[in-house]
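Q: What would this chain look like folded?
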Amino acid sequence: MEKTSKVSQTEITVFYDGLCQLCSREIDHYKKMDGSVKISFVDITGAGFDAAAEGLDPVKVHQSMHVKDRNGRIYLGVDAFIQIWSQLTKLQKVVPVASFLPVKKFLESGYFLFAKVRPLLPRKQCADSPYCEVNLARDPVKKPS
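A: My prediction, written as structure tokens:
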């Protein structure tokens, strides 16, 4: 079920890597949670995705999780996850803990490491995506459009 039909209720837009198996599983989990109707989920590896049209850097959006709120403010990494959790009823209780500076710094360190190894994790079939790092590695001339 696409969240785009409930745009008037959308509080945030989550931009995620749909080719990343782990990322997709996490997003699928979020989509099933109470409160997910307030979130629009956008796969940044889809052929129709245009980062510039969303006000996002087309390179950086592939390097870390991005969330945009209804006012256009962009959140990255752990801050993006905090925005997601704040919308999901069962996860709202972790927001104050994750926002507590010592905990947040620890989470940011972990996310930084994850973001570095994420491209090495198993990927879904990527023949249909102009953003597949595997395809770009094989054909360095091919650029995302």
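DSSP finds five helices and four strands in the chain.
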